[in-house]
Amino acid sequence: MQLKKEIKTIMLKDPFQQFKEAQRVNEIRYCPLTGRSSRVLGLTLKEFAYTDRTAMIEESARACPFCPGLIDALTPKFTPPLKEQYTYGNARCFPNAFPYDENNAVVTITTEHYVPINGFTHQMLLEAFECALLFLSDVDSKKYPYQSINWNYMPVAGSSLVHPHLQIIASSTPSNYYSDILSNLNNNPNLFMDYLTTEKNLNERVIANPGDSTWVVAYAPMGQFDIIGILHESMPLHTCSGKLDSVLTYIRTTLQFLYSKKIDNFNMSFYSIAHNTSFLPHIRICPRVTFPPYATSEINYLQMLHNDSFTLLKPEVIAEEFSVFAREQL
Ligand SMILES: [Zn+2]
């Protein structure tokens, strides 16, 4: 597989260099899985600014519907044939009161109202994911094959509640992301393994190879950067119980890495399609950030209206930093 990119050179007279002629080099890269473009800008970002969120966290704890005092009274229950709610350790699964799809559940990861991004233990994640799988394995995978486990962590990432929770979807219809990949799989049923082989040969963005999955920094990121973990075996999520050990380990390592970069919001999706053997289950985790001094959103007209992403961070630099970080952690 050839990874596609176009280099664009922009000349300008730069006010920060006494109006000398200066060159900016941008790259337009194309995601090998979706085909969507992403711009890697020829600028550098030193670091993200730390934001103190203590007041918001304290305020949100006062009447939290996911905390032990209110969760029994304020969370919905499933209708038959599903169980009313599912529990696994401290995790609890119930319907999303504001559903996006036919089968849209919420899993509270823990009874603790706030867990800092570097505070999630392996056990917490294990209980939450296994709880999600209890729900998914009770939903008809033939009728609702588009299964995903999703996570908006904290309000900048789109979470309306601070209390950590996953959102699970089992849908009869594909999201645009699935549609893009399905159309590429029509041309190349071996798309995922081709992508992984290409990344392994190039060895510029691979960050971990625990055996049953491979983790890379995305060539064409959907956010400022984008960590992708691809399982080597085609297994739909509802059959993954007991098989997620390395996945949970690297989700945790990614969250610790985000913390080390002063990032405290992220989105995660774990995608799978039941009864489609060429679609390999995979995870994408993108940090969510704002830019100082006005907490400017990173979502501007490019993402909102052109369906393009951009980043100020070179994926290869992130891969190097992540690899050094992971070696120190594990
Ligand atoms: Zn809470």
Keywords:
single chain; 330 residues; alpha+beta; HIT family, subunit A; 2 domains; ten-stranded antiparallel β-sheet; globular; binds zinc ion
Question: Count of helices?
Answer: 8
Structural class of the helices, strands and pairings? alpha+beta
Give the overall shape: globular
- CATH superfamily annotation of the largest domain: HIT-like
Sequence of secondary-structure elements:
EEEHHEEEHEEHHEEEHEEEEHEH
What does this structure look like?
The structure is a single chain. The protein is of the alpha+beta class. The chain has 2 domains: 5-33, no CATH class; 64-329, HIT family, subunit A (2-Layer Sandwich). The protein has 8 helices and 16 strands. The chain has helices at 54-60, 71-74, 122-137, 176-187, 191-202, 245-260, 301-306, 315-329; strands at 5-14, 20-30, 37-40, 86-88, 91-95, 103-108, 146-153, 165-171, 206-208, 213-217, 227-231, 266-273, 282-287, 290-291, 296-297, 309-311. The strands form 3 sheets. The chain has a 10-stranded antiparallel β-sheet with strand order 4-5-6-8-7-12-13-11-10-9, with helices on both faces. Strands 1-2-3-16 form a 4-stranded mixed β-sheet, with no helix packed on it. The protein has a two-stranded antiparallel ribbon with strand order 14-15. Strand 2 (20-30) and strand 3 (37-40) form a beta hairpin. It is globular and about 70 Å long. The mean pLDDT is 95. It binds zinc ion (ZN). Zinc ion binds next to loops.
